Amino acid sequence: MSSEIMSDIKRDHILKLLENGQREDGRGIQDFRKIQVETNCIESADGSARVKLGKTEVIAGVKIIPGTPFADTPNIGVLTTGAELIPMAHASFESGPPGEDAIELARVVDRGIRESGMVDVEALCITPGAEVWMCFIDIYALDYDGNLFDAANLAAVCALKSATIPGEQYGKGENKPLPITCVPISVTEVKVGNTLIVDPNFDEEQISSARLTVTTDDNGNFRAMQKGGRGSITLDELSTCLDRAVEKGAEIRKIIG
Predict the structure, then answer these.
(1) Which terminus of the chain has a smaller tally of CB atoms within 10 A, N or C?
(2) How many CA atoms lie within 13 A of 102 on its CB side?
(3) Model-level pTM?
(4) How far apart, in whole angstroms, are the C-alpha atoms of residue 48 and residue 39?
(5) Are 47 and 178 in contact (CB under 8 A)?
């Protein structure tokens, strides 16, 4: 009972702050938490990155191996994204096969990378119709304090940017950088009461009614979008989210280089 009362008190406190354009941690409603990025942090991976978004922490590794192309895309490389929410990251995460939340997280990140054309998959062809490079992106949540979508996006994108195709290891020529064409950045907002806020922390996520993640490319073009939560988002609110996605995406690209 006491925890429920505390939860109600905390909810009212957050809502009252938002009514005045404030947040518990001192940020404005359009502000991201501090972003920290470390690349090449997994020695056995062909590319890797650890990202801290406030207290949320995610690590991503990229493995690139030669393999057989899909029958319907014989001259195009393979790109696959997976995510795992391990119990050490948060008490609500359980061990075992990926659940719905992990599957959604992987799909949202994958869609942003794929639809933006970040990786030139045609350049991953080794022998047309016979052999291509297969690129696997594995994402792990290490610490969860809200907004895994943007943290995972950043970790995957930075891992891909740092990745090297291991041609020498497999007798396929020289090692070379993974062919990157752009840097897709996702910006997630949630609706708490009647207020849209960028980069929600855990408490803000828990009392939100709706979530929207928008991914843009280097030119500010919209490449992917994912709605979550049971609440609604009006057309005016959608317009606000889209504008912020472009603005914040540009700011984040400058941060990660």
Answers:
(1) N
(2) 21
(3) 0.93
(4) 6
(5) yes
Torsion angle in degrees (nearest 10) through CA of 238, 239, 245, 248: -130
Q: What are residue 141's DSSP bridge partners?
A: 58, 85
Query: Which run of H or of E encompasses 188?
Result: strand 185-192
| Spatial CB neighbours of 204, under 8 Å, sequence gap ≥ 6 | 14, 23, 146, 190, 192, 197
The residue assigned the tokens 């949630």 is 190
Instruction: Give the pair of three-digit tokens for residue 117.
Output: 């054309």
Helices (H), 127-201: 148-161
Instruction: Please give the full DSSP string across 67-125, using - where no structure is assigned.
Output: EPPPTT-TTS-EEEEEEEE-GGG-TT--SSS--HHHHHHHHHHHHHHHHHT-B-GGGGE
Tokens representing residue 133 in the block: 């490079």
Separation in Å, CA 52 to CA 69, 158, 208, 256: 35, 12, 22, 12
| Alpha carbon distance 108, 106 (integer Å) | 6
Q: How confident is the model at residue 20 (pLDDT cuts 50, 70, 90)?
A: confident
pLDDT for res 3? 40
- Report whether 87 contacts 191 (CB < 8 A): no
Spatial CA neighbour of 136 closest among 163, 117, 116: 163
